[in-house]
Amino acid sequence: QPCTALIPAVAGVITWSLRATGKLFHSGLPHLGMNALEMAMDAVTEMQKRFYEDFPQHEKELPYNFATASTLKPTRIESSTNGINQIPPWCKVSGDVRLSPFYDMPLLQEKLHSYVADMNANITALESRGPHSKYTLPKENLVGKLELTLDSDFSEGIACYLDSVGFQSFDEAVKHVKGDSQPFSTMGSLPLVRDLQRAGLDLTLTGFGKSSVYHGDNEYCLLSDMADGMKILARFANTVDNAE
What we know:
This protein has helices at 36-54, 105-121, 165-178, 193-198, 223-243, and strands at residues 5-6, 9-10, 12-21, 25-26, 71-79, 86-87, 90-99, 136-137, 142-143, 145-150, 158-159, 206-207. It is an alpha+beta fold and 244 residues long. The chain has a 4-stranded antiparallel beta sheet with strand order 5-7-3-10, with helices on one face. A two-stranded antiparallel sheet has the order 1-12. Strand 8 and strand 9 form a beta hairpin. The two termini are 27 Å apart. One of its GO terms (molecular function) is hydrolase activity. Keywords: Hydrolase, Metal-binding.
């Protein structure tokens, strides 16, 4: 993790894509087409509304000093390559969910599928783009469609044990070397750590890079931070050994 600090918790993450299918038509006659781009935008707005109602900040997050609560957001959009003067027949929005470790991933997956199933069953309720933008064409027996895909390769979040020997020892080591320790949690994610904790390991998450360039185009670290990191690790290991 990119900082000389304890990271007592990280989020779970799962990626998703939502495909909206409408009908191609000339934009001068919008009432004869179904705008998949508008449908996708309305559907994502509704997904986010329901998500934040079902997954607000969890009370157990407070002692872990999270920078943010759980989030669902779009990060990429694709659509048909039709002309500018045509109603797009399909659009796909992709994004991710960053889920607090105090919520269960299976519950999230169930909720997301239920949101989309309900929107498909009530597709006209999404219409909000003026009087001529519709997601059904009754005379042609056509109905807009939403399809949600969740990535099967997801990571679960983890909350370290704040009262464990490992956490307390590392906190003391950071204070000794740096003069202060300010643990904070992020909605970043790490693979495998939840499984290791379930196996009985006392995990402590940390790192010695620079948060200001985390995942940046020119990510780097300072040798002085790495030197401090070695001092912290040495003191941490010695303290844990003596505690046992």
